Predict the 3D structure of the following.
Amino acid sequence: MRTFAVAMSIASSVTASGCFTSWVTTQAVGTQRFLDEGVREQTVPLAGVQERLAVSIPLAIEYDVDPAAANSQTVAPQTKTARPFALTCSTQQYAQDRIYHSAFRYGSRWKKTAGISFLVEAALGATFLLLDRNRDQTDPMKANDRSGLFAGGFLAIDAVGTLAILFIPRKEVFTVDDKAVVTPIRDDCPDNLVLDIGGSSYPIDAAGRIGEMGEAALDEWMQAPAGTIALTFEGRPMPLRIEAREQCAWMRARHPNTGVRPGTPDPSSTSSNDARDADATERACSSPGQMVTTMDLPRVTTAVITVPTGSLSMAAGPVAQ
């Protein structure tokens, strides 16, 4: 009985991934590289490296929770402190590598594995067929149990297929693939980064802060858009897409009791192809008070600027505090 249990365990393992069945699966799903032997790869960087600066403006207010209050067992509300308003900068380098892959398939390792699999599957298949033939016909449950026949039949068929693919001739493989490579460079804001609000420019420091005047100007623009709002880095402007939903998120976070409808942003900073949930936006913006569902509103708005290679990576430095 113990021997039968061990045989069943081995058989179930082989049945789940028989040699011939596994080979057919690799051909069907395109994972033949799993069979490669003697693999050699060479990676060559391609031209066309780009650096991209992503700058995000927070729309919601972020808070720091007092650890002592957070761990307190009392019912008193946690003490929260609003973090200073700051933009978030992230620079990544985008490149491509060309990978030259050479190998061979169906070598000596393959033939040894296939040969052993054929012997194991044939032996187990014969064992299950024999157990099915000699099952106790007087026991109704055993008489109707044909699992041995099915398992033995599958293993026998798989063994025949394994014997056939055992004689596949050795095959040389050579492929060329391009792979995208994204490398983080820095997470502070670079020098010469400026936020333009309605014709006025506000420098952004390394920590992403624009100063009190910049924050006041941004708040005024969110309430009554006038002119464009954009980021500029080394003469390269990138308009920020701030529309009704972004204004709603800003107003709900900073002026929750006003119930002010957002103004209409400048057409040059909007996207006509962007589908918006107008009903949810209207409800979130026009209803005063804190108890308004704003889960559908964004938390940040982001602009991405493509800059010359090396202009950011060569100037990486620590974040100013």
User: Anything to note?
Assistant: Residues 50-87+189-313 form one domain. The longest helix spans residues 108-133. Confidence is low (pLDDT under 50) at residues 1-16, 264-277, 316-321. Residues 56 and 302 are 4 Å apart (CA to CA).
